[in-house]
Amino acid sequence: MENNDVIVVKMGGIASDNLDKAFFSQLKQWQAENKKIVIVHGGGHYISKMMTLMNLKVEVKEGLRITSKKTLEITRMVLLGQVQPLITTSLQKAGLQPVGLNAGCNQLIQGDFINRKKLGYVGEVTQISNALLETLFHTDQIPVIAPLGITPQGQWLNINADEVACQVAVSLQAKKLFLLTDVPGIKKDDVWLDEVCFEQLEQFVTQKIVTGGMVPKITSAKKALVAGVQSVCINNTITNSGTTILAKVPVLATN
What we know:
Pathway: Amino-acid biosynthesis; L-arginine biosynthesis; N(2)-acetyl-L-ornithine from L-glutamate: step 2/4. The protein is α/β, with parallel strands linked by helices.
C-alpha cells in the first residue's frame, strides 16, 4: 500500500493518563482532512510497576526488557487488559472510533525471537499484515495496536513499541510517523532542533548528542525513512512536529 494520507502515532503507555483536548482535536482535524490514523502504544511504566508488585526483577539490556515466560504473561496482561482499554476509552469519550488490536487479530504482527538465550521472549517484527488496518480506514476507525508479536508457531513475543510503529508505518508507506516521548524533540547545544537530515543521525549518536531512550527512536526513524516513510517527527505532542527527520536518502524498494 502506498498512502500519503496515513499518519502513525507511537505513544508511551503512560501518555494514556495525560491525553488532552488538543490531542483529540488534532486527530479529528486529521480525519477531517481525510488522513488515516494508526496509534501504537507502549506500556513499560505499567509493566515495571506490576512486576515490582509481584516481586519480580526488572532487567533491561540494550534498551530491551529481558522477558521470561512470567514477564511475558504480565506484559500481555498489562498491555491488553490495562493500557489499551485506557486509551480506547479516552478516544471513545472524545467522540472518535478506536479499535483495540493485538498481534492475534488477522495475523497483524508476525515476529521472531531476537536472541532467546540473552533476552528471552523478546522479538522483532518480520511482517505486518495490514489488510485489517486498511479495512478499518474505510469507516474512519482508528486502530490502536499493542506492541506484541506472534511467531508462525503461535508463540507470543514482547516487541519494542518504536519498532512496531516503524514497521506499521513502513507497511502502510505512511506520510508521517510520530514517535512521542517526554521531551519536545532532539536537543543540540541547548537548542531544540526543528529539522534534522537523515545523514546527521549517526553523527548525533556517535557524539552523544542523542543518548538513552532516544537512541532506539533514532534507530526506528532510520529504518522507517530508508523504507519509504516520508518523515519522522520526535516530540511530546502531535499538535506540532517537534524535531522532523526528513528522508534525504535514496529510498529502498519495498515488497
